[in-house]
Write a structure and sequence with these properties.
Radius of gyration: 31 Å
Catalytic activity: L-cystine(out) + H(+)(out) = L-cystine(in) + H(+)(in)
Number of domains: 2
Membrane topology: Multi-pass membrane protein
Strand content: 5-15%
InterPro entries: LC_transporter, PQ-loop_rpt
Distance between the termini: 105 Å
Oligomer: single chain
Family: Belongs to the cystinosin family.
Number of strands: 9
GO molecular function: L-cystine transmembrane transporter activity; symporter activity
Largest sheet: 5 strands, mixed
Structural class: alpha+beta
Strand order of the largest sheet: 2-9-8-4-6
Helix content: 55-70%
């Protein structure tokens, strides 16, 4: 009686005309939907999801995946696939018909078979639309499909990834061993070490932040709702291990003979500039003026800048000394193997997925890899061609001493 009385007063304010009656009925219907039925329960379906969000298939291959429906529907619903690149992937049956039921079972689980056909190499996103519109929330129902030329190339690329990961991880130890064997760090440039520890610290912050922080992960997914986290566990391990190995080398510089070597004024100015940028970014982040995800991006940009310049001090020092004694050539060979396999992997992937846009479009990754290879070749020439005799004389003096 109380609820009826309230509705009567609301309608009374609007008058007794047919327009007022329609107004009252529409308001009442809206209240019932919002406070009583709710949209999902009004149609009966509780949830729809795919059994996989990432699918890899070959060209001219059909692959089966499933859409799982929780709860039966009160009305007939048609789901239609929306393919980002129809020239890459196609669906022989692009629609799914969900029948209506008079007495729906809210806990019923229904599986729909969906076949995807790989037409040409590439990447494509697939989403779904519902008719009638708004029948069910499909905002989280999507799939990333990758169509490739060859599974063998994919496996080779995967193996290459682990090989260059191992090569880069081990590349720090020849320098540590040489320092230990000689009980000296003369010939190892301190600017290179200082830039390296700064770079790997920034890289570690970026990887750990995106991998361990739920808040930052949420920020990333809000900006890129259908993307996966770009940081994997091996990225975290590599960056932390690289920072640790560099710290070990810096410790050797404190306890072994180093003559008058120290970080140059130029190196200190560069590091100070990077440090100021980091401190300002931290302050803005703490004050809520800068998202922490953007802070991590700034850290990654600093790492990229350092990668571009960190080899220059060592190459110049070798030139001035006319010797590479104290600078590990083993480190260079492993770095060269890692860089070469990295670029080769990018090339194989570009062919396998017909994704040359990513290959040349990612100028940063490709450019840095190529830049590192150029310096590795230059160091090899310094060691074996330019200063070969100087190395032998200098090494003999070190051994006799």
């Amino acid at each position: 009686m109380a609820h009826y009385s309230t509705s009567k007063v609301a309608c009374g304010d609007a008058g007794t005309s047919s327009h007022s009656l329609r107004y009252c009925l529409s308001r009442l219907t809206m209240l019932m939907l919002v406070f009583g039925l709710g949209l999902p329960s009004a149609y009966g379906i509780e949830k729809i999801y795919l059994d996989s969000t990432d699918l890899n298939i070959l060209v001219d291959e059909n692959r089966l995946f499933h859409m799982i429906q929780i709860g039966e529907s009160k009305v007939a619903i048609k789901l239609t696939t929306q393919v980002q690149h129809p020239d890459i992937v196609q669906f022989p049956s692009p629609t799914i018909d969900i029948p209506g039921t008079i007495n729906p079972n809210d806990t019923a689980q229904i599986t729909h078979d969906i076949w995807a056909y790989g037409k040409s190499p590439g990447h494509s996103e697939v989403t779904f639309n519902a008719t009638p519109a708004g029948a069910i929330d499909l905002s989280t129902v999507f799939m990333r499909i990758t169509v490739m030329h060859s599974q063998v190339i994919s496996v080779i690329s995967y193996i290459m990834g682990w090989i260059y990961f191992a090569a880069w991880s081990v590349s720090f130890y020849p320098q540590i061993y040489i320092n230990y064997k000689r009980k000296s760090v003369v010939g190892l440039n301190f600017d290179f070490l200082a830039l390296n520890i700064m770079g790997f610290t920034m890289y570690s912050l970026f990887n750990c932040g995106l991998y361990f922080s739920p808040e930052i992960q949420s920020e990333y997914l809000n900006r890129h709702p259908r993307s996966v986290n770009p940081v994997q566990l091996n990225d975290v391990f590599f960056s932390l291990h690289a920072a640790f190995a560099t710290l070990v080398t810096i410790t050797q510089c404190c306890i072994y003979e180093r003559e008058s070597q120290r970080v140059s004024m130029t190196g200190r100015c560069i590091l100070s500039a990077f440090l100021v940028v980091v401190l300002v970014a931290v302050g803005l982040g703490a004050g809520g003026e800068l998202a922490w995800l953007d802070f991590l991006y700034i850290c990654s940009y600093i790492k990229l800048c350092i990668t571009l310049i960190k080899y220059v001090p060592q190459a110049y020092m070798n030139y001035k000394r006319k010797s590479t004694v104290g600078w590990s050539i083993g480190n260079i060979f492993l770095d060269f193997v890692g860089g070469f396999l990295s670029i080769l992997q990018m090339t194989l992937n570009a062919y396998n997925y017909n994704d040359w846009i990513s290959f040349f479009g990612d100028a940063t990754k490709f450019g840095l890899g190529l830049f590192s290879l150029v310096f590795d070749i230059f160091f090899i020439l310094q060691h074996y061609v330019f200063y070969r005799n100087g190395d032998e004389k200098k090494y003999d003096l070190d051994v006799k001493a």
